[in-house]
Amino acid sequence: MIGRYILPWFGGGPAVWTICLLFFQACLLAGYAYAHWLGSLANVRIQAGIHIGLLLGSLAFLPLRPNAAIWKPASAVDPSGRILLLLTMTVGGPYLLLSATAPLLQRWFTMDNPEKSPWRLYALSNFGSFLALLSYPIVFEPLLRLPTQGAIWAVLYLVFAVFCGFTAWRLRYVKSRATPENGVERAARPTAGTVLFWLGLSACGAMLLIATTNQISQDIAVSPFLWVVTLAIYLLTFVLAFESDRFYRRTFFAIAAGLLAPIACALPSISIGLSLGWQLVVYLIALFVTCMICQGELALSRPSSRYLTTFYLTIAAGGAMGGVFVAIIAPRIFTEFNEYQIGLGGACLLGFVGWMRTGALAQWTSRSFAVRLPLMALLIGGVTAITTTVTTSKQGAVASARNFYGILRVMAREDVNGPFRELQHGRTRHGFEYLQTARRDWPTSYYGPHSGIAIALNALDKANRRIAVVGLGAGTLAAWGRHGDIFRFYEINPDVEQIARTWFSFLADSKARNEIVLGDARVQLARELAAGHSEDFDLIAVDAFSGDSIPMHLLTAECADIYRRRLSPSGVLALHISNRALDLDPVARGMARYLGWSAVEINSRDDPATGESSSRWVLLTLNQDFLEKAGLAHHVSEWSKRAPITWTDDFASLWPVLKF
Question: What is the mean pLDDT of residues 566-593?
Answer without folding.
Answer: 92
